[in-house]
Amino acid sequence: QRASIARKASSSAQANSFHDSVFNHNSVLKKTAEMGISESEFNSAVTACQYARPGRGIYQFFAKETGDFSREEQAMFLAQLIHESAGFQYKEEIAYAGNNHHNAYQDNVGLPGKTYHGRGYIQLTWGANYKACSEDLGMGDYLLRNPEVVATNTELAVQVSVWYWRSRVRPQIRSQPNCFGATTKAINGAIECSNGFNQQAYNRYQKYLKVASALNIRNKARENGCYN
């Protein structure tokens, strides 16, 4: 009888836990829909950049992880995600996809036999960044030991992108508010922002303008902060 009671209690606790999880998840989506980007707007922004409508799960993870972003910041972040991933088609640097035997992005933090090329919608590179991201996400050194999982897990691909934005991009936004180029500089500045006009950086801003228009952002960010 005690075992039966225990099973019922366990079942009830699991049901309550599941209910709370669903409630919290739906609350996040509702809050984002009310204050941030709705799923319809998200899809419109992606298709405005000439890409196919993304899978439903991507928006859900985006909404969950960016609940504290303003619409203006969400627009800049989304534009960079779209550019980096070709409209959420890729979660891994194309040049190294599936190749775990190259020597790129080697540092003194990465582990032997592992590669730390770009993975995620904003591509995470270098062992030091995989380690820092993993620790900040409460995963210990899991991503350092298993970097390849970022390219196979949509939620992780979003999470590492948000981590990079918060830790590397936001400080640039604070020092250069409303300058989209500053976000590009924080993501790929060494290549796109160090030698005058750069077509890729320009293309990023053009995508941002399309995203901002799709989201009806009135105070659009300026192009400044990268090569100008």
TrEMBL record:
GO molecular function: chitinase activity
Coiled coil: none
GO aspect biological process, one term: cell wall macromolecule catabolic process
Keyword Cell inner membrane attached: no
Protein name: Putative endochitinase 2
InterPro entries, sorted: Glyco_hydro_19_cat, Lysozyme-like_dom_sf
UniProt keyword list: Carbohydrate metabolism, Glycosidase, Hydrolase, Polysaccharide degradation
Source organism (scientific name): Spalangia cameroni
Annotated Glycoside hydrolase family 19 catalytic domain residues: 75-170
